[in-house]
Design brief:
By secondary structure, this protein is an alpha/beta fold. The protein has helices at 16-40, 101-110, 126-134, 150-155, 235-245, 256-272, 281-287, 297-303, 342-352, 355-365, 376-381, 398-401, 410-425; strands spanning 89-95, 117-123, 142-143, 159-160, 190-202, 229-232, 276-278, 292-296, 316-319, 327-336. Strands 1, 2, 3, 4, 5, 6, 7, 8, 9 and 10 form a 10-stranded mixed β-sheet that branches. Helix 1 packs antiparallel against helix 13 (410-425) and helix 6 runs parallel beside helix 13. The two termini are 40 Å apart.
């Protein structure tokens, strides 16, 4: 049986200073100025001190416009056939509780002859993480981002290109990750976890079969659930659910008509149910503080460990569109250019892609690795996921048909954030 995992606390609060700047520009120049900013493209983050990187227009990758990033002469991959650094401490930079300590100990044991250690430093959100990485004052070897950060990091030469000869275990993961649209030829990234966004509920508190409804998202507008439901405190994730409910399947839309429809629906939701805006569903739902919530699949899997004593996991339910047309996402492992142990980092990535280590990690964090050997039946039979939560198991084919949250151009980003802030002000 897998270990009982604390949850990953996924939070991506907006950069308040950037938001206020956008709103000031909107007030000064109106929509025309924001459109001009969008036409210029999104700027890259500053490169670390000493880097030769220069500001440039940022490419925005998407499934319809895939990007294969260049490998720069002043930021090359390591050579073939190097030995791991001896006496090294591999520095990981990650969310809290998003990697299993038992997996790290197993890595240290495997490389005992090299006298290596692993240290984990944590961040609360990616704004904090990127600010610290950009400072150039750290020596982290590994970072665990989402794919919407890769453009910024590659362009600013913050991450190191991979030498594939050290990572044969890439063959263990879903084939699409050997040539993903956000990083063609997997030059800089390897997959870490996959997850969906759906609806979790306590079926002992809600008699309705939410998954059988014509449009399950309607529950967030149903007054009978007022004060007992929540949406994820992530602007894009929460608003994308509102868009899907309204039939807007482009969850990165820049159209003013779509945004007006989303805004009207959010005002309506606020008036009818006033949902809690939080990231603690993994605890609040099993504790009975909530009856239903928008949730990530990994968090509903973790929720079973937060149920009161004597309450069985069967009281938990999770819905994700069975046709796969919902939100799907994945997180990554990358090597930071400022790291001091690039060879050991390559060995670590290969270790994490080994099936038994990936599964051991899954048992702790609750977020699924995209392992070829891992199917929904095995996940349930091996005890990683209760049978009643099999809908939280992520299927490979969903990544071909599901909807992805993408980086937005500045004007669209500002418009989405303005709607979100108005919504939260009424929360």
């Amino acid at each position: 049986m897998p270990a009982e995992p604390p949850p990953r606390r996924r939070s991506r609060p907006i950069d308040r200073r950037a938001f206020l700047t956008r709103m000031s520009l909107a007030a000064i120049g109106g929509p025309a100025l924001l459109e001009a900013l969008a036409a210029c493209g999104s700027p890259t983050p500053a490169a670390p001190k000493g880097s030769k990187a220069t500001p440039t227009t940022l490419k925005i990758a998407s499934p319809s416009t895939p990007v294969t990033w260049p490998i720069f002469k002043d930021n090359p991959a390591i050579a073939d056939g190097l030995m791991p650094e001896k006496g090294a401490t591999l520095q990981l930079y990650n969310y809290a509780e998003y990697i299993g300590p038992q997996v790290l100990k197993a890595f240290e044991k495997k490389y005992k002859a090299y006298n290596v250690k692993v240290k984990v430093s944590t961040f609360n959100d990616t704004d904090e993480a990127l600010t610290k990485i950009r400072s150039g004052k750290t020596s982290y070897d590994m970072y665990f981002p989402s794919y919407d950060q890769i453009a910024k990091m590659v362009t600013a030469k913050l991450i190191r290109p991979l030498n594939h000869s050290y990572i044969p275990n890439i063959a263990n993961v879903w084939p699409s990750f050997s040539n993903p649209w956000y990083d063609g030829e997997w030059r800089y990234t390897v997959p870490y976890t996959v997850y969906t966004t759906g609806i979790g509920w306590r079926n002992d508190k809600i008699s309705a079969d939410i998954g059988a409804m014509a449009n399950p998202y309607d529950v967030f507008w149903d007054p009978q659930y007022a004060k007992h439901l929540a949406v994820i405190d992530d602007w894009h994730t929460a608003m994308a659910m509102v868009a899907l409910r309204a039939g807007v399947t482009n969850i990165n839309t820049e159209k003013s008509a779509d945004l007006a429809k989303i805004q009207a629906a959010m005002v309506d939701m606020q008036a009818k149910t006033k949902p809690k805006v939080t990231i603690t569903m993994y605890n609040d739902l099993p504790a009975g503080q909530l009856s239903l919530a928008q949730m990530w699949s990994g968090d509903i899997i973790n929720a079973q460990y937060y149920l009161p004593k004597g309450v069985k996991p069967k009281v938990l339910s999770y819905w994700y569109p069975p046709d796969g047309k919902g939100m799907v996402d994945n997180d990554l492992m990358v090597m930071l250019a400022q790291g001091k142990n690039p060879v050991l980092a390559h060995h670590f990535v290969n270790f994490m892609l080994e099936a038994k280590n990936a599964l051991n990690n899954f048992g702790y964090i609750g977020y699924q690795p995209p392992q070829v050997s891992l199917d929904s039946a095995k996940v349930v039979s091996d005890g990683y996921v209760p049978a009643n939560l099999s809908t939280a198991v992520v299927k490979q084919e969903w990544f071909d048909i599901g909807y992805r949250l993408l980086e937005l151009p500045p004007a669209a980003d500002a418009a989405w954030h303005q709607i979100w802030q108005q919504f939260k002000a009424g929360a």
